[in-house]
Structures are given as structure tokens and as C-alpha cells.
Amino acid sequence: MTNSYDPSSEGAQMSFDGRMSYGDYLALDRILTAQKPLSAAHDEMLFIIQHQTSELWMKLALHEIGAARASILSGALEPAFKMLARVARIMEQLNSAWDVLRTMTPSDYTTFRESLGQSSGFQSWQYRLIEFAAGNRNAAMLQPHAHRPDVSERLKAELARPSIYDAALLALNRAGIDVPEDILNRDVSLPWVADDRVEAAWAKVYADPARHWTLYDLAEKLVDFEDYFRRWRFNHVTTVERVIGLKRGTGGTQGVSYLKRMLEVELFPELWRVRTAL
């Protein structure tokens, strides 16, 4: 049986000469021609698309984190919750992508690994921006981007502004839950160091959620984000170990051992530790 249905009979647009089409709007010609394998290996296309799509999701995550931070700093906490919830879902998408990459075996990877040269996910400046925006700040991580002044400036600018956790602490203080002045006025470019006084401030929120519901919701949205972020890191470790074992990464890091150290990094330590104290 043939399908003779003509969508134009019901008003569907069928001619796009001189008009914007789906492909035009999404710039699909540029996106779909951006995959340029450097070897004849079948799995190199998978490797490229996996990382390109991850970078697109990271771009959206940065868009949402930046807007959420601005919202919190302005005192409008509720709009930030949807943005932070979206960031957690984005991290879930990034996690699912590892499942696809894990279909590539060690033998598959060796067929094109040399084509990568010194390139490595370690050099992802968008990933670094996400870490900086969340509060995991390390000026040493500017070095891999010194050859790109435009990227270096973006990273330095991020280090100079409050992280989303700094913004949350300002919101706590504005709501009447005292956060020490030395915390509020700290050098935000430096890495966050866990502080018992900040844990005590969050404990007041968790001890009476009904009274501090907006702050309680903010705290849980941040925990959701870090929860998914931790899963992403863990899946990264297991995928790398499954594919290359304990070899060094293409970018010169110690591979799995380096990634395992990153698992120990806490973005919002007091929000996790306060659970023990309740």
C-alpha cells in the first residue's frame, strides 16, 4: 500500500526557496559537516560526535548556571530553581552519553588514538568554566588555554566573579541567617575551603525547612546538581579505565589516577556534611 497523503493539503509548508527552513535555523550544514575524522577508523566518528555533543550540552549548562547565579544575586531565588533543575537534567544527558561511548572497545580506540595527538578532554575550556562557576577554582588550570587569549580571558573573568555557591551564601545572609563577614568578603578567585560556620548556617535551614523553604529548596537544587556532576565524573573514570586501562591520557595526565583524584573534589561540601549533623 502506498501512502499518498500530502501534508500541504492541510497547510504544511513545503517550499522554502528564499525562506527560513529547519536546517537554516539550526545551521545544520555547519554542524553536520564539523565531523572530520583524521583516520579511516570506523569508531573515530563515534568519538568525535560524543565529544562535540557533550560540548553543546556544556554550552547550555553554562547558559543556565550563569542565569541562575544572576537570579540568585538579584534576590530572585525561585526562577533560579528551574534553571538549576535543568542543569541537573543536562548532567544526566552527559552521563547517558558515556553509555554510547562505552560501546567502543580498547581495540577500537587503538585504531585512531594516535590521530588525537596531544588533544584531550582535560583541555575542555567549557568544562573548566562549569567547574569555576560552581566554585572549584584552580588558577593552574588556566595554563592549557594560554595559547587562546579569548578563552583565557573568559576563564579569568569567571574566576573574578562570585561562584554560584558564593551567590547562595549571600542569599542565606540576606534572609537573616548570618554568614561570617570574612566568608562574604573573601577573595572569590581562590578555591572554596569548607567552613564549619557555613555548615552551621545551612543547619539552621535544614532544621526548619518550613520556615526557610526557599533556601531549603535552593540547597537541594545545588545538591541535585552536584549529585549528577559526581556521577558524570564517576562515569568518566570507569569509561576511561574500560577503554585505555591505566595508560596516560593523550593530554599527558595520569589518566584514571588523575580522574579518581577529581572524584574527591566537593563543590558544596557543607551541604553534604550538614546531613551528618542533623
Instruction: Give the oligomer, counting copies of the same chain as homo and different chains as hetero.
Output: single chain
Q: Write the H/E string, N to C.
A: HHHHHHHHHHHHH
Compute the average pLDDT.
91
Structure summary, number of beta strands: 0
Named CATH topology: Methane Monooxygenase Hydroxylase, Chain G, domain 1
Descriptive notes:
By secondary structure, the chain is mainly α. It has one domain: Methane Monooxygenase Hydroxylase, Chain G, domain 1 (Up-down Bundle). Helices cover 60% and strands 0% of the residues. α8 packs antiparallel against α11 and α11 packs antiparallel against α12.
In short:
By secondary structure, the chain is mostly helical.
Any chance you could write out the topology, listing elements then pairs?
Blueprint: H1 22-26, H2 28-32, H3 44-73, H4 77-101, H5 106-110, H6 125-134, H7 149-160, H8 164-174, H9 181-184, H10 196-207, H11 213-244, H12 256-262, H13 269-277
Helix pairs in contact: 3-4, 3-6, 3-8, 4-11, 6-7, 8-11, 10-13, 11-12
Descriptive keywords:
single chain, mainly alpha, Methane Monooxygenase Hydroxylase, Chain G, domain 1, 13 helices, about 60% helix
